[in-house]
Specification:
Length: 106
């Protein structure tokens, strides 16, 4: 897939909010998850983010999720970016909230 189409795929994937209670298998520091679900017409890419995270965490998650979608669209592979096989034909990645050290180059 060319880069422009990959960007359209990544920017068009839905990011849905859900309650923390609905994500019973999430650890307290898990912010959200990106999913690739098999469909007859191809892959359905989507993100799920907890509704109780801060605006900054949500925005960071959305940027991260769209970067993951772009990599999949360009490469055509889930393994290149560390996606986990769900065992049902789909793939997933879970995002944790972590405090990164300051970037010494900025």
């Amino acid at each position: 897939m060319d880069e422009q189409t990959a960007r359209q795929v990544a920017s068009g994937a839905p990011i849905l909010e859900t309650s923390p209670e609905a994500l019973t298998r999430f650890a307290p520091d898990h912010v959200g998850q990106v999913l690739a679900l098999p469909r007859d017409e191809g892959w359905q890419l989507m993100g799920v983010v907890r509704s109780d995270v801060s605006r900054t965490e949500r925005e960071t998650f959305e940027q991260w999720a769209r970067e993951r979608f772009y990599v999949v669209a360009v490469s055509g592979s889930f393994g290149d970016d560390g996606w986990l096989d769900r065992g049902d034909g789909g793939w997933q990645l879970t995002a944790r909230a972590v405090e990164m050290p300051p970037d010494p180059f900025t």
